[in-house]
Amino acid sequence: MFEKTLTDLIQGLRANKRNEAEYIQRSLSEIQREVQLSDMHQKSVAVDKINYLHMLGYDMNWANFNVVEVMASPRFGEKRSGYLAAMQSFHQDTDVLMLTTNLIRKDLASANIMEVSVALDGLAQVATHELAQDLFDDVLAVMGHVRPYIRKKALVCACRLVGRYAEGLSAFVPLLKDRLDDPDPTVVAAAVSVVCELARTDPRSYLSLAPKLYRLLTTSANNWMLIKIVKLFAWLTPIEPRLAKKLHAPLSHLVSTTTAMSLLYECINTAVAGNIIDVQLPAVDSVGREMDFASLCARKLEQFYESRDHNLRYVGLVTLAQLQARRPELVAAHYNTIMRCLDDPDMSIRMRAIEAISGMATRKTLVPTVKRLMSQLVLSNTVALQPNSCAELNVESETLDLPLLDAAGASLVSAQGTIVSPKIDVSDVADNPEYRLAAIDAIIDMCSRQSYANTSDFEWYVATLADLVYIAGVDVGLRLSERLLDVTVRVRQVRAFSIKMARRLLSDSCLVDRSCSDGTNSPVLSTSAYILGEYCMLQPSSAEDIGLLLPSGLSKLSDEQQAVFVQAAMKVYANWLKDVSGYWNPEIWELVRLVTSSTQHTLSSIFMGNACVALPLQVASRLRMFAEILKTVSLATSNLGDSAPPVCAELQYLFSAYELNPVSAAAQGKVPVPEDLDLDTYIGEPIPDTTHKVMPPPSPAPRPSRAKDPFILPSVDDIPMVALQLDSPVHAHKPRKTKKKS
Asked: Which of 111, 169, 415, 628 has its CB surrounded by the most CB atoms within 10 Å?
């Protein structure tokens, strides 16, 4: 007989590209016959072939029992084929795993180290909870094997078994601690790797290993093992702060002398994460100069983010951001270098550079940083800015000649002209929505951090927020509206300028139509409407502002936003009436009549066009109030008089009698409670609590009198009482006898 080997199967697959599925089905049929043979060699060859087909995606669960048979072969080559197939195909729910317990135990106790090795490899891959519980002691016994090769594999296998059988950890840790003193350095490296893996989830359980790990840190020359030890101390130092002072000397020595970038990164990261840089001890650099350890780490980080390797630049920026949170004065010196990283073609590096540069912002660096980020948002294929009219859009216009911000940082893109998609090729990184969101968040955070501590020109900040409405390219309307409202309410000096920006945004028909249709910037528009209505008295009033607050697409916005627009329109209308009533004449009278009539018609066309749709409560109440105001003004101005009707000048006091000032959320807690205030005494009669009280049922209605009804029994009191004669005998009647029927 000439059976096909694994090599023949692979060659056949390559030769039958056109009918590969048919060839595989024939091969599977042959394999099914071969695994039933008594010849173990042929059976192991069949298992190798089905294992190869399994890696191509074909099921081999039907051959699980045959795999166990091959695992039990006395020949090592066949046994290795069985273990390899088991590691490839067995899983936690494989039913034949219960048959492998004694088989694996026998191989673990074998005198052949190759059989012990393959058993450890296989057990680490296929172990279940029951299998780990039964064989855990056998694996611990192998950890004392005379061969370092087996001790290493036993350590790794025991680590995998602990993941399945957590109860064995208490017995494993003492033996693991002994392996840290193993005479073979490869076993020690394996033990350190196991400790590093186990301490990832529970570092406190391995705090007792710190002395031995410290000895290895100061004596070992294996960089890979040192990396794991340093990483372990990064987890242990926050638990035991006294380790920081102990680790200062060895870590500073490694940072000064090592040439391995991976080890240098782990040392700096551990020094920052474990607050070792705060230890008041000097460090010595590579030329023997004493300096602060944090300064040494900051200087060494330059090798990372100035490298051409993208991976090194990335990890350097990540660590620099962590260092900046603790020692910002050290990172400020690297401002220009981080700014260059903002132009990196790798988006991940740009994201980390944004994170680092955001924390470095000061009054001096704020404007240049914002200008750089906004220029990236403008010079991309995402932005489409049209602050004027949609009909004036010129796609072929040169867009790069328009300044984003001038040298003073106060000019606006929205005030300069039209920006459309640029005609030159730009980096695709700036078109990524995630990057654009990160850049906008960084701009907002830098400007508003610590109650605008870095912002000296608030008009520039408001102008920047207005520019971001146009060039954002992503939905950030809610974030921009919150910041725009916050700075306007907090800073009195910027309110007049905020009104100008609100008018500019509301007068952009393209922006308003797009926001009303997709809701992208609708929060910004509603905030602009609120600012224009709340502080309209700070600027000369105009009847055009009323039209800006009642756009045709207002009904498409949310209920809250509609209510804001209607309320703002009322305030602007009342303020305009007060201004024009001061110089009353026939032309003003006609203008008031015209504006009042057109406003009534606009409200009717926007909200009353569809009578089947019920208006929300917050919109209906304000709309009814506005309609009554318009009706009152219309009646008061029906006839031309020598002076303006009093209602025109007095309407404004409905909205501006008291100024609305910002109040802190914790302001009420600072107000002292009066001594004579008794909150437990009722001011009036207490209101009865009827929320859970069950009311008694109503009393039944009185029935009509039926005294003359002959079928109604008289009252009990009307029944005569007769005394019983107990002395007379009582005669009982005998029952009648009935005749039986025959």
From this structure: 169
Model pLDDT, residue 724: 55
Q: How many residues does the chain have?
A: 742
> What's the distance, CA 511 to chain centroid?
29
For the chain, how are helix, strand and coil distributed in percent, rounded to 5? 65, 0, 35
**Half-sphere CA count of 465, side-chain side, radius 13 A:** 34
Q: 668 by DSSP, 3-state: which?
A: helix
Question: How far is the CA of 369 from the CAs of 361, 405, 440, in angstroms?
Answer: 8, 12, 12
User: Measuring CA to CA, which residue among 218, 308, 193 is closest to residue 261?
Assistant: 308
**Rounded distance, CA 30 to CA 6, Å?**
13
Query: Which two tokens mark 449?
Result: 């951090």
Rounded-to-integer distance, Cα 133 and Cα 350, Å = 49
Give me the amino acid identity at 157: C
pTM of the model: 0.70
Residue (of 609, 650, 615) closest to 629 by Cα position? 650
Alpha carbon distance 259, 207 (integer Å): 29
Q: What distance in Å separates the CA atoms of residue 146 and residue 144, rounded to the nearest whole number?
A: 7
In angstroms, the CA 543 to CA 315 distance is 58
In 3D, which of 448, 318, 298, 433 has the Cα closest to residue 370?
A: 448
Question: Do 507 and 547 form a contact (C-beta atoms < 8 A)?
Answer: no
- Six-digit token pair at 590? 């006609």
Query: Which of 101, 95, 66, 71 is closest to 84 using CA atoms?
Result: 71
Beta-bridge mates of residue 291: 283
Widest pairwise Cα distance in the chain: 143
Alpha-carbon span 561 to 267, nearest angstrom: 54
What are the pLDDT digits (tens) for 693-727? 555 566 665 655 555 555 555 555 555 555 655 55
DSSP symbol at 162: H
CA distances from 184 to 151, 355, 659 (A): 10, 45, 81
Query: Nearest CA to 382 among 263, 270, 470?
Result: 470
Q: Which residues of the chain have pLDDT under 70?
A: 1-3, 286-288, 379-429, 517-519, 609-613, 689-742
Q: What angle do CA 619, 622, 625 make, to 5 degrees?
A: 145
How many CA atoms, within 13 angstroms, populate the side-chain half-sphere of residue 169?
14
Are 495 and 540 a contacting pair, CB within 8 Å?
no
Question: What was the pLDDT predicted at 557?
Answer: 84
